[in-house]
Amino acid sequence: MIRGILFSNIKSNMPGRRETTGQKLIAFAVRWLITAVAVWVAAEVIGGIHLEGWKSTLLVALILGLLNAFLKPFLVMTALPALLLTLGFFLIIINTLLLALTAWIAGKFDSIRFAIDGFWSAFWGAVIISLVSFLLTRFIDPKKIARSFSR
Q1: Tally of structural domains, the chain
Q2: pTM, to two decimals
Q3: pLDDT 10s digits, 45-74
Q4: How far is it, in rounded angstroms, from Cα 130 to Cα 60?
């Protein structure tokens, strides 16, 4: 398992194994749909998370995905001492912050119907989104799906 994590980028950069732009887009779309399902599940389970419609679900998943891609690495590096002291528990706080930020950004658009009532709703929503995403990616491999489309 550690070997796969450490050397996964090396394997994908070997000659003949380079991902095409189309494969990257398909893998992105699959990850986006996984996030959308996770957000929908969190909204169904947590009473303090309000989400209406599939368009809102997809847009919220897009916002959250972009925040996770661009802002989360900076937050993790900044919070590294807290992450080490709490044995990674602080990552849940970072995910809570990103989910709350997603709700704030979504609130700026009239077409996105997404709201979170408070910290605990965001906290448990972040936990559920993380768990559902983790479980779905154990069964659905976005890169493998992308490779199968390019054959």
Answers
A1: 1
A2: 0.84
A3: 999 999 999 999 999 999 999 999 999 999
A4: 15
